[in-house]
Write a sequence for this structure.
């Protein structure tokens, strides 16, 4: 109980008075709100590890809306919902179209009469994912204010075109556990680098989420990618500003080795260039299949020029004491294992496999924490209740 | 608690002694049974609004069987099941065929060993939907009597070819809340009218459900449609008889303006002509794709002759004080919003948007009420328990 | 309570000290472990019949992985999970590929952070189903040992290429209830026979499961099939050895009448020859569509030569007093009902319909028992708790 008490005391000390019920972008959140997510996630994870119940709801729905395929995030959301006592109801895009405007407003309300949380993954269309989530949030807010809904469901961004907050906060949890505290991250060198993949069209939300979050804690963040593989400019600007404000640095380079030099953490991961994603969005909207095929061919050829952007043993040797933490959001393209040539050498991945699994293991608790903080006006009181109940999970 | 007590007293006063465990057609139910559904739904809705638990079951499955796409009804059923403590298991028609005869009997039993409720939506084939539900009901009844099943699951019709009772009873709840009481509906004018839609093949169950239910409460119900858009004749006859018995009226007209004159309630909604649905059923069974295409072309051309059947501001001005309640089961075809020209003008819909959302909001509680009344021999005792428990939902 | 006490006493008397957390193949389990499954299933079934709660978990996921279509097994798993308080999360193979090697290891861990049980059905590829399950079991075992997973999920084989333990143990439950006790099965004649079906490619796991299990209890098991319809040789050898050890017999014949002679139990059921399944697996892996079509044509022609392998009234008359128990895992191919000519005559099936439904009704409780025995180190203590709680299900 003492361990829980100090976490609860920390939570109590944070100013959460102006927080929104939704979690859409980390950079819209105060540092207190981010710390609250980390802290609540830690409490829930500890309870789970001890075999204790983390049930906050007697009944209630958690609606999931996935605009593309997903195993990890889908199960993370299902796990988070289940841990809190909620039941997932999928709004299947194939079965039932959710569009924009009146249709979004209506559908958002129709699925929310008994809904406590809504998780949305919508990263396919650059410029549309986050916008769509804001539309849903406004729709349920109005529905709640007008009395259509008895409760205001909390929205959780399970990946959009701009950010992937449940991933980046899981990553941050991993860093905190690796280096001992948030405070200890100051001055640590993190290399978020592009890596070669034989596939194409990987979203930008992971690198954007990482540079958009880690620059807030005084880290020395380097973003490395081959020329042409830019991220959304506004987010690169934001990373720059945040680094300055937090006493860290944000450097962009087109040299993978330079990024790995003396790095404490490396995060080599493929993504598609911002401009390709823009063009792809235009073609997808236009339904231009031929154009999409041509774009894919062009993009793969462009990728193939950068096969040396691989996280090899040689590259790892450049890092701090040759022992940087290797991170990946999974699944990784492992050379000789999941593809002929990919993002990471098999021996490197193998050495860090357990670490990448641990990195992923935070996500269900991060999502659950976002729901708890979004739904409960006084989260400290509610969590104190749940912890005090000492109910076993089985 | 007093509010609940008067609802429970009313429930206690109703003669429910001969009720069936299933809810398939409103016109097979006594008025006491219908009042019981409204009353139990109101109790559950109030509990939910107060953040209190409506859990009736510790565990148990609620099986949903949908023979066509659905978002609203699917989520209403999922919400109802969840509110009662049941977990939805979908019998996916694409994954696992449910047919007729021996297969229905067997499947119905195989999915019911731990099942407390079964919700079925089957409105595609005229003449088959209701018949199929009766087959399932008989199968689980026999299974229960023979000891194959430890409990008799309750069947709820989530829309068939004849009726849509969860919709029409939600509509009735809306009317009761709008006009103050069931008693107050006497003499109120309701216009159930056809409206133009650019799509085709919309089911008959909503207008049939409305005229089959509202004629029982002394309302002056007018059914308006262009010549040729008849409903199933037996249900029109039934509406006539019921209106006579309840002291109301049932009038058929082919003039939309006449129906709107002095109406207190208007329900403009597209449907396909009965004869078209019969022909479509024949062609679907025969797998006659070419015939189906030809029928669609013909039906759309027929629809297009009646584009003036739109709920415009001009038409609304004809109603009682120009302020009739506009109703729709959603989604509506809104002119200039969801289609070029449709069932209702955008300004009319916009004024009543909140009302249509409220109308929809009753459905989860109506479904839950049907399950409670179907499954519990002494619903008053069970509900008294749940209300008295005063368990919060979170 | 006395009835439960004697079952609990029996359970207590069984040596379960070396059991694995998973249930993959009956022949890897000791007789004590098999008796434990039967006993726990009986306790759960009795509790359910009395309307009492069988909830063992407050929250938790039960992941289901189905590599082919299934209604019965899917609902049995969903029912078992629900009865224990777990929520099913489907790993949909179409939505998210689960492959072998690194991918299996990773996916198995990614879906298991809050997972208590995993049910897998994988019977399509001969030589791959069981192997794949072992891979998943090893992956979660390692994940648990390394601390990635806070708990070790229990694996349940819901049908593989070798065995169908949830089916064969349901069958055994039926036999115990029919003949009074496990002991009473000694010397009873069971005919597991091939039967004609107009379809092709039915898995071998049911007959293999039956001969692999029933030969352990002193039964006189006859396996009958037309020449060429062999099962996996190792399992036929195993049945031979087990029969010798248990004081029973295991006889192979190619004469259906001989198998039915004086049989106490008959289990006529179609399957594809072992060699055809091997060839089909090869062609499926090679993606050889033309080869698969040719194989199907050949196999159906081969089947058609044995249309006399039907469980007719004449054949039933050969059995002990003409009253052998007819068993089937369902759905059966019923002549003149579900197909023109099939495995069983309509009048025979009709007489045993209720019995086949009862046979199926054990499965949810068998699966739940496997989960309980796999997950709880001291199942007697845990079950005593649940029984003693005397919580009603509603």
């Amino acid at each position: 109980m003492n361990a829980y008490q100090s976490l609860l005391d920390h939570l109590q000390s944070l100013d959460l008075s102006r927080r929104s019920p939704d979690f859409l972008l980390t950079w819209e959140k105060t540092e207190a709100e981010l710390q609250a997510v980390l802290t609540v996630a830690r409490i829930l994870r500890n309870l789970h590890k001890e075999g204790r119940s983390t049930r906050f709801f007697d009944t209630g729905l958690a609606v999931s809306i996935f605009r593309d395929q997903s195993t990890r995030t889908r199960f993370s959301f299902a796990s988070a919902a289940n841990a809190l006592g909620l039941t997932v109801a999928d709004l299947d895009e194939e079965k039932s179209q959710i569009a924009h405007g009146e249709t979004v407003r209506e559908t958002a309300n129709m699925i929310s009469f008994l809904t406590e949380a809504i998780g949305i993954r919508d990263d396919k269309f650059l410029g549309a994912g986050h916008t769509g989530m804001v539309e849903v949030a406004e729709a349920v807010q109005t529905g709640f204010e007008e009395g259509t809904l008895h409760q205001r469901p909390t929205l959780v961004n399970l990946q959009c075109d701009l950010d992937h907050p449940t991933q980046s906060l899981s990553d941050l949890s991993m860093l905190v556990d690796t280096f001992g505290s948030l405070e200890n991250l100051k001055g640590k060198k993190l290399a978020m680098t592009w890596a070669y993949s034989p596939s194409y069209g990987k979203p930008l939300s992971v690198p954007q989420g990482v540079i958009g979050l880690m620059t807030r804690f005084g880290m020395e963040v380097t973003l490395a990618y081959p020329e042409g593989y830019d991220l959304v400019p506004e987010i690169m600007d934001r990373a720059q500003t945040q680094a300055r404000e937090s006493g860290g640095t944000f450097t962009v380079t087109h040299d993978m080795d330079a990024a790995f030099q003396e790095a404490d953490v490396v995060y080599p991961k493929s993504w598609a260039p911002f401009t390709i994603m823009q063009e792809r969005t235009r073609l997808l909207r236009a339904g231009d299949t031929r154009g999409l095929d041509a774009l894919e061919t062009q993009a793969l050829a462009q990728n193939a020029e950068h096969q040396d952007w691989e996280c090899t043993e040689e590259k790892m040797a450049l890092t701090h004491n040759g022992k940087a933490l290797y991170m990946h959001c999974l699944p990784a393209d492992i050379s000789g294992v999941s593809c002929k040539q990919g993002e990471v050498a098999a021996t490197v991945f193998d050495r860090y496999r357990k670490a990448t699994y641990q990195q992923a293991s935070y996500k269900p608790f991060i999502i659950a924490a976002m729901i708890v903080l979004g739904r409960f006006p006084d989260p400290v009181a509610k969590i104190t209740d749940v912890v005090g109940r000492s109910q076993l999970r089985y």
